[in-house]
Design goal:
Number of helices: 10
Distance between the termini: 54 Å
Strand content: under 5%
Radius of gyration: 20 Å
Largest sheet: none
Length: 218
């Protein structure tokens, strides 16, 4: 009720109201109430395109709508992709070399992979990797999981040699950090998928001496 009072009486159609609707949408996403979340986010979009066009607030709203639409419960992937691209376009204009741009590239890459667009997925994963390596650290877990994502796409595209190069780099980074057995297990799970797909792995594939930690394969 307080939100309606603010919208209708205090500050109708303002960026503050759009942000409030977006915040409510995010809260509902966390609760798993996607349809209701989408309703609030759509309202936030309607206001933001008028009072905060091409703003980071609108980019965030676009990203949230894209994320909800991509969830399995809704699965409107083409529409989701459109919103994620609009979010990316705004963020790249504001600050092209930023971690949020890298994250958006990764999200788009993941969706394109699910849609079977392997070339598009690889392009976005590589762009994310380039930014993440520069701004975060070339040996971070986010970089490791980007190599993991690239390996999965290459495996699905039947490039087992390329997939193995990337998963070996991912595992090498994890071995270097030694921060989480859970993370290591996830990466090893990917390597298992690649082996199941028919790649004949050498016995010593995981030895650090045999992994070029500085390499960045295509």
């Amino acid at each position: 009720m307080a939100i309606l009072w603010k919208k209708e009486v205090l500050v109708p159609e303002s960026a503050e109201v759009a942000r409030t609707y977006n915040d409510l949408g995010e809260a509902l996403i966390r609760k798993g109430e996607y349809d209701e979340a989408l309703s609030y986010l759509r309202r936030a979009e309607e206001i933001a395109v008028v009072v905060a066009d091409n703003s980071l607030l609108l980019a965030r709203i676009y990203s949230n709508i894209g994320s909800v639409l991509s969830y399995e419960a809704i699965s409107k992937w083409t529409e989701a992709l459109g919103y994620l691209h609009k979010s990316l376009a705004i963020r790249e204009k504001k600050k092209p070399q930023s971690l949020i741009v890298a994250e958006t590239h990764n999200t788009i890459g993941t969706l394109l992979h699910d849609m079977g667009d392997f070339s598009g997925a690889l392009d976005h994963f590589h762009q994310s990797l380039a930014i993440q390596s520069q701004l975060d650290a070339p040996r971070s877990m986010k970089v490791a999981f980007l190599h993991n994502n690239i390996a999965l796409v290459l495996k699905d595209n039947h490039d087992m040699e390329g997939a193995m190069k990337h998963i070996k780099i991912a595992i090498a980074i994890q071995m270097e950090l030694s921060s989480s057995l859970l993370d290591a297990g996830a990466l090893l799970g990917t390597s298992g998928e690649i082996m199941d797909a028919g790649w004949d792995w050498p016995d010593k594939a995981f030895e650090k001496d045999e992994i070029e930690l500085g390499s960045q394969p295509d």
